[in-house]
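haha ok so turns out i had the wrong file open the whole time. this is the CORRECT one, sorry everyone. sequence first:
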Amino acid sequence: MSESQAYYNWNHRNPTEDSNEDNEYFTSYARVSIHEEMLRDTRRTMAYKDAIDRNADLFKDKVVMDVGAGTGVLSCFAARAGARRVYAVEASEMAHNTELIVARNKLDDVITVVHGKLEDLAYQEAIPEMVDIIISEWMGCFLIFENMIESVLFARDTYLKPGGMMWPSSANIYLCPVSAEDLFAERIHFWKDVYGLDMTPLVPFAQEELVSKPIRTQDVKASQLLADHMQIRHLDMYTLTTDELAKSLRSFEFRCHTSKMLHGFVSWFDVLFEPTPTPLPPPPIDVGLSESDPITQTDDEANIRSHPDVSPTPQPEDRTVVLSTSPYEAVPTHWKQDMYLIETPIHVAEGDMITGTIRVVRHTQYKRHFWVELSYT
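then structure:
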């Protein structure tokens, strides 16, 4: 047990957990290879960079916290956008390398790398001030797997100034029935002819293994979807609580738009980087002017009319960036999609209805894991 955890346990009613799961989790993020995979995901990394660059004025002279900073790439983006101070919080041993990366890029006058688990650091007073912006890449499979999101919510409740900004600001999970003919051909039908031998006695066992748990990071094509997808969860990062995160229940209804085999369901997610809304100017006051009365232009209006190439200041919605892991995207992210297979595939025809419920519950022992339960008719 760390010294900070011992201090917390002595002074607080609810002691912290120092589980092997956490140790294994943070050890995995000390490996260079896992960061290489994330950084090579250009859609993921460029979404963050694009969001920061489009909204650099929101970062100017602000204090930023990067939760789960990894190599510090997001911290560097924020610093280059003009942040006054960036706290790059990283619990794994990668933090030591992050310091070298920050120094090599001459950003150590702005970025402070803080090594440790955020929940412990709070009681060490390792971060001496409140922050204007919290940015984090916390998403896992099925969006919430790994449950890093709880650390982000802790950061929000502990360090974010009133009116501060959370990025991502919101997230959504989607569900859709799916056909997986190629997957079944590869994993199940394979046993029908193996070098000229009939190994079909293994088919029930192979199928049981295949459907017993979700298939993560599966590259699903839009042509495999059997119906229009639906949103099954929306997360508002400004209001979401850990209790709300721990359990959700949602009904679904799909009308098939094609005739194929139904092998299960597929999920994906998106996250939004929405700038803090700029207050709109008050509506003009009606003073009873007729159409013939002169109207005074504002300086901005006059400038735009006299210089047609000058555009008005973009509204917040123009600067919103969406990072999607949808199978409709031409290039997949490293998350790809997650598939939940049914025990016995069934044939569905165009117009057939698939109804059911999906329940998601956090594991009582392994807090970074969730049970996903699907029932359907």
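The chain has 13 helices and 14 strands.
again sry for the mixup
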